[in-house]
Amino acid sequence: MKDYYPELKENIFAGAPKFSTEPAMYQWITDTINGSDVINSRNVVCASTPYKSDRNDATHQAVDLGLYSPQFRPINEGDGEYNRRINWSRIELSIECKADPTDQDPFDDTTDDLQPLAADRKKALGQILTYVENVFKHQHRTFHYMILFLGHYARIVHFDHSGVFSTVKFNYKTHGAILTTFLSRFSHYNASNRGHDPTATRLDRRGSLVAKMRKLGEAKAAAHPDDHVQQMFNASLENAWPWYKLEVHVQPKSGEPEPPRGRLRSSRPTRVTRSFVVGKPHFDAGGVVGRGTRGYVAVEVDSTGELVGPFVYLKDAWRVDHPGIEQEGCVLETLNHNEVPFVPTLICHGDLEGQVTRSQDAWAKREVKKRGSKRTFKKHQHYRLVVAEVGKPLEHFATGARLVIAIYCCILAHQAAYERAGIIHRDISSGNILLYKENGVWVGLLNDWELSKRVNAPAVRQPDRTGTWQFMSAKALNNPDKEITVEDELEAFFHVLLYHAVRFLPHNIEHDSVPKFLEDYFDGCSTKGEEYRCGMAKLSAMENGSINLSTYNTTPATLKFLHPEDQNKTHVLDSIISRLLLSFKAAYARDPDTREQGVTQAADITSDFLTALGAKSNVPKPTVAAPVTPQKPVKSKGKGKSRASPKPSRRRGRKAAAVASTTNAAATSSSAAEGAISLKEHGPLVDFFYQYIRRTDWPLNDKCEDLRAKAVKAAATGHQEAAFNPGRSESTSRKRALENAQPAPGASKRSKV
């Protein structure tokens, strides 16, 4: 581009006055840029938007200034220049102003990684990262530029999914030709060179594709009003959000012939492209650095502009491009070929040519002052994947039995992938287990195989931990270099089960303490030197075989899951949790509970799943003993007590009840005292889950309100301690109170490390 847009000697910023406040900077910089002859005003104009946030932005942040295409320049909504509203979906380049050149500089040139140490500078860094996160969230971007004006100094900053790099801080009054040249070139660039993804086409709201999407959604809703897939698609057709047509550059499947090449021997094969239309993403991982995964309920559009085929799920991500890491689509192809059950079915996938991050290369060239400085900048490649199944989050399970069934399905998937295909998942987490309706029956779907590896592949493939912090095993958290094993993954399944059970099922944790428990157990950490390690709550549970609630309850207790109809009795799930904790400890829980297990009137709650499971040819048939179903309780006359039929005499009934109570207590203790389940391989755990799923005494109405919601409320009012979030940038900060400020919703996806 330098050949077309040469370096300029002109400095349009040489006459900058002394700024005492930030608002004084807004007006002068806006007028200077818009009044310059060297900047192409037909492509970009500058607008100040310091006080009004985007109506679609839950963070209610607003960057000071921005460059926009003239037709999308924010409209002045009142008197004065500062009544324009930021538009994150249309901004081309962000501009942030700070009056102080040092204390508010988010970068520190004296450190090897530019990370600031002072609190105000950390706050400024968190602020600009929030701005760029909003740009990435509302647009399809390969990168984004920002200009920082720091008094009479400036930086030009480049952001992509690998990291951030910046120019050194320079005085734009004396060396402003640098900034003038950059702005001149930027204003002449096409959309792709300004950081827009050329494979994502924003749809015109008055266009035919938008009308067809709405018509399809209405037709599906009328035909199948209870279908969760059409509900998700229609929910994505939000008028205030940009809709897109996304291309997938199809990579041939194994065994398929390559597309024809051109006449020249050196020519590449013809690229096969498929297109899909999408509305608002169903899932957005957020953040600036990382995979930036977004998930959509999509429908294919053919070359004539017609919508074809069923709804599908499209995943847009910046995958780590590291030797030995397979594309997720290739992994799914292998799993599908080996008939692994309860995993997504591959439709198409492929890298987007030429869309690779650049930050890792810039940092590789930077000289370090401190020998041995550790850097983990990764090369990321833009990638899209389309699968047939559209699932919904695990937290939407209907009952405790359905939660256990979903996790059981995913353990079966994990086992088959490991034993048939030689692949281990390595990222078992809440967000990667979905609910999916298969032939009318809700099952679990083990999703997101992008961090998986071949069992016989080299152990070390990335320079840091692999997995999701909140659900990783205690051993993996305490040893960053540990190779993930089956035992680690089975423990992760337990943590997922516990996480949802504590949030939604009845237990003996005092409700006001649940947010703190979730924070300590799943987000907690300890430190050893400069490394983060497993938090004490999770580690203690694994080592002691029980979960101590002394910190959370008024009176000392260990965690128990309670029957929804009788809080003096335990839930079926309690036996599962207790036995699994015992297995991690390999000893009896330190605080045995003598409460008898609650009995529910026998209900047909799992037989539909068991029937469907038996019909699947790719799932081995378990060979276990018939389940023991507790006797059906009946009400005794006058006393309101439960006893078993047939009806005995009153004296005989009291004696029988006493014997039954003693027997049940003994049975409970005996059950808890059973040996630990081996977690070295899948088989014992699969059989264990199957035995409990076959039971007919699962409660029907045991799901409660989400107790984690209290954490969101506490965070909004400032009463909750900040949770540790490894791999996350400095927390977002607000530089000023913006109108209609509301708390941001909690993240739906756990952070990756």
Explain the overall architecture.
With 753 residues, this protein is an alpha+beta fold. The chain folds into three domains: 22-188, tt1808, chain A (Alpha-Beta Complex), CATH 3.90.1570; 200-257 and 270-366 and 377-467, no CATH class; 468-631 and 678-723, no CATH class. It is 29% helix and 18% strand. The protein has 18 helices and 26 strands. The strands form seven sheets. Strands 8, 9, 10, 11, 12, 13, 14 and 15 form an eight-stranded antiparallel beta sheet that branches. Strands 1, 2, 3, 4, 5, 6 and 7 form a seven-stranded mixed beta sheet that branches. The chain has a three-stranded antiparallel beta sheet with strand order 16-18-19. Residues 587-593, 625-673 and 711-753 have low confidence and may be disordered. Residues 620-629, 656-673 have a biased composition (Low complexity). Residues 634-655 have a biased composition (Basic residues).
Number of domains as seen in the coordinates: 3
In terms of DSSP E residues, the strand content is: 15-25%
Structural class of the secondary elements?
Answer: alpha+beta
Instruction: Give the number of DSSP strands.
Output: 26
Q: Classify the helix fraction into a percent range.
A: 25-40%
Question: Separation of termini?
Answer: 37 Å
